[in-house]
Each structure stands twice: as C-alpha cells, then as structure tokens.
C-alpha cells in the first residue's frame, strides 16, 4: 500500500444490513502527520460485528466490520513519535475521540461526551466513513494505536483489543483480586477472558453457565468452581456468596435472582445488552447495599495496561484462525455457540475483489 496517497485495499464488507459479507475494495486515506499505517495480520470476530452486520444498529453501509485488529506497522507520518515500521501493534474499538471533554482528558475515550469515532460503521472527523479490520491495512492516528508486547502471539492478541479490555476494565475497577469471590456469567468470547484475567488477578473464580457442558474448559482456564444456572438449586446454594459478578451474556437475566448471589456491598456488572428493557425489585438492591452497574470496553491507557498485564501473565485469547472466505460460516457458528472461544481472520487470506 502506498503510504503517501489514498489507496484502495481488499476487504470483506456487508453491502446492506442482513446481507452476507462479500469481497470488495475500500479506500484508505494517505498517512497523515500523526498517522500509523498498519498491515493487518489478524482480526477477531466479535459478536458486535455480527449484530451490526445483521441488524444495522446505526451503522453505515457498506460496512467493513472488525475492531479486534493485530498487525505490524509499515509506515508512519512525520509527526509520529511512538511507533516505527516493524512494530507489533493493535487497534481496538475506537480510532478517535474529541480529546477535549473531561472523559477524554481523564483517559476514558470510550465515554467521550461528543461521541468516540468507532473503528467501523462510524463517521470520522474528516466526514468519511470508517472501515474496520476485515481488510488488509488500516490507517490510524498514533494516539489510538496500541503496542502489542512480544510475549503475546498476534492471533491470540487480536481479541484482547475488545474482549480482553472489556473484562479487564470492570475486574480491575471493582478490584477483583486476592480474597475476592468473583463470578463470570457465560463462558464465551468475553467470558473465557474474564476467567483468565480474574484468575491472574488472584480472585477466587466461579463460572455461571446454563449447563455444565463447559465445566472442564472453565477449570482449564482458571476457574475454581462451575455451576449451572438452569438448576434452581444453584441460586439457593450460592446465595450471598460473591463480591463481584460480571455478566457477559446478552440474554435477558432474572436480575433479582443474580443480585441474590451477591454479599453485602456486592456489585453486578453488565457487559451484555439484552434486546429489551430489564426490570428488578428494588429491594434486591436495598437489602445488602448492592450495586447494579455496567461497563463499556476501556480507555486507551487502560487497554495498554491490559496488554502488559496479559503479557506478564502469559494470557491470550483461545482462538480458531479462519480464512476470509469462511467469515459467513463463522458468523453462523458464533450464533450457534460453536466456537471456543474466538474466531480470528487471517488477513493474508483476504484477496482483491
């Protein structure tokens, strides 16, 4: 790719909401003063990619999904000080923000009051649509590029840019660690990273899943306990047990039942978004001074911390690497919960349209 001029590159895109992804070409802007050109090596398939490709969710089309990007720097602008060609880097869910609001200045770009610019399906500050990582190259401002430590293989690192930080952020914010009992609801692309990170932080980790099918996997990943939520006895047996519950699933939960699992001053953090409104009995919070809250990915500094933490503890995502031509098949398998635990696209298999 020519770093000096706008260039068309190969990609996979959803032409309209609900349509299968197909090969295409997309424009990438020339490398500007503070830009980094990344040759993409691997891109994770996030459940959000599927939801947006299938249902739109405010995205613009044609849409090139992908916000779990790992690759290598091939060119930098003259004002770039942090990176040079050959560096191993990643790009997550954001490629820009206003940088002026209190949230941005405090390092919480994901909560930018003027709206963070998402890696795909969004509109950049230049008025042009953003295209994601189901492609061979991407140009990103250096402030939204993350260095990937050498200890993490690039294919295992890609999902950390979304799934990893999405779990690291609430687990560290609510102080999971030695002496704390933490439950992870759901053992999928998000949940399996929650188990790994919570275990590495030193917490006592329990997985709550509908069935016992993944019990062996959970223990391999670092869980101390595993319980099936389809068994009503689980909620009786574990009542008042946990300091922190992190819910990674998007299905509607019985919030009163899950809040009953918290001890005094315990917190239930929601990462998944159910399709409709949720309700609860307020006494589920009042009785025990409990907290019901949510969390959204993580800021840039927090994501850097997460990558360093994962490298220090030998953590990466459990991945199945696929070729670009298998993306639509992978979408169906994700919806059928037939992946352990993250599909990752080998960008070298994305041919020109």
Task: Please explain how this structure is put together.
With 353 residues, the protein is of the alpha/beta class. The chain folds into two domains: 7-162 and 298-349, Quinone Oxidoreductase, Chain A, domain 1, CATH 3.90.180; 164-294, NAD(P)-binding Rossmann-like Domain (Rossmann fold). It is 23% helix and 26% strand. It has eleven helices and 17 strands. The protein has helices at 47-55, 102-105, 154-157, 163-173, 191-201, 215-221, 233-237, 255-259, 283-286, 300-312, 327-335, and strands spanning 7-13, 22-28, 35-44, 69-76, 88-91, 94-96, 117-118, 137-141, 146-147, 181-185, 204-209, 225-228, 242-247, 262-270, 291-294, 319-322, 342-346. The strands form four sheets. Strands 3, 4, 5, 8, 9, 16 and 17 form a seven-stranded mixed beta sheet that branches. A six-stranded parallel beta sheet has the order 12-11-10-13-14-15, with helices on one face. The protein has a two-stranded antiparallel ribbon with strand order 1-2. It is globular, with a radius of gyration of 20 Å. The model has no long low-confidence stretch (mean pLDDT 96).
